[in-house]
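In this supplementary section we document a worked example of the pipeline. Step one takes a protein sequence of length 347 as its only input; no multiple sequence alignment statistics are reported here. Step two produces a three-dimensional model, which step three serialises into C-alpha cells for compact storage. The input and output of this example are shown verbatim.
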Amino acid sequence: MHKKTINPNTTLMFKEAEEANQVVAHQIASNQEIIKQIADKYSNNLPELIVTCARGSSDHAATFGKYVFETRLGILTSSLAPSVSSIYKKELSIKNALCIAISQSGKSPDLLSVMNSSKAQGVATLALVNDTTSPLASLCDDTFPLCAGQEKSVAATKSFIASLTGVLQIGHALNPSAFKDTDIASIPALLKQSFECDWTPLLEALKDADGLYTIGRGPALGIASEAALKFQETCGLHAQAFSSAEVRHGPMALVKEDFPVIVFYQDDESAPSVKESIIELAKYSKKIFVIGAEIEGTHTLPSIKSSALIAPILQIQSLYKMINSLSIARGYDPDRPVSLKKVTETI
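The serialised model returned by step three reads:
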C-alpha cells in the first residue's frame, strides 16, 4: 500500500486508459490492409472451428471473441488450455480450425507452444499482439497489431480494449454482413465519451467493501471477468465474475443486504434473462449497480448508448477510470499492484 497521497489523474493506469480512444482510432486506420488480406483469405473458406489461446486479460478478450464468433458467425469457438501443449505435451486435433492467440507481449512460452503445435498440424494461425517484433508475431501466419503502444502500467487497460476492437474487426472481416449493426468506426469517439462517465456512487459503495460479484452474459461475460481481475489486482478486493444465469444457483447464497453486485448489460437477446437475474438479486442486496439499463430497485451507472457488441467495450472503459480512483481510495497504488509484474511468462 502507498504512504503518500496520489492524484488519480496522474497515474499510468489513468493516462493509458485515457489513450484508448486514440489507440483504437490508430488501430482501425493502420490495419485496413491486414483486414482486407484476412477477408480475402477466408472469403470462400471460413474455418469450421475457431480456437483461442490467451492468458489473463487477453483471455477475457478471447471470451468476448467467443460470443462474437459464435453468435454472429455461427462458428464454434473454444478456449484451448495452454498447459495441454506446454506441460502435458499433448497435441490436440484441431484440423480445419483457425487458431487465434491474443497477447500483449507475445513472449509467453505456453502460448508459443500452442501455436507451434497448431502449425505442425497445418492449422491456420493468427496473432492479435501488441509487440509485432515478438516471437508470437513471427511464428503466426497472420498478425493483427493491437497498436496500443508501450503500456507501462501493470494493469492492462488500453491493450485490453484494443484486443476487443481487434476481435470485432476480425469477425467483421470473416463475414461483414453479420455486423451491419456494429459501426466499428464510431468506437473511438464513443470511448472518449465513456471515459467521462462519473461512477462515483460505485466508488463510494466499494471503498470499504470486502468482496463483490461482477455479472455479465454473452459478450459482457468477458467484460465482467476483466472487471473482477482489475478489482483483485489493483484494489485488493475479492471479486468474482459470473454469468447472470450461473449466479442464480450457488453464488446467490452470498448476496446479502450490503453485498455489492455490478451488472454489465447489453441490449441483445440476453437482455430479458439478465433483467430477471437483476430483479432477483435486488431482492437480497441494496447495492446492485447496473450499467446499460434502468431497473427499479437498483443503482444505474451512467453509460454511453451504443449497439450490443460495442456497449461492453465502452462499459469497461468507464470502469477503468473508476477502479483507478478506487485503488487509491482503498490505500493502494494502481501502478504497483502487490506481487505482480507486467509480463508473466507461464509454461
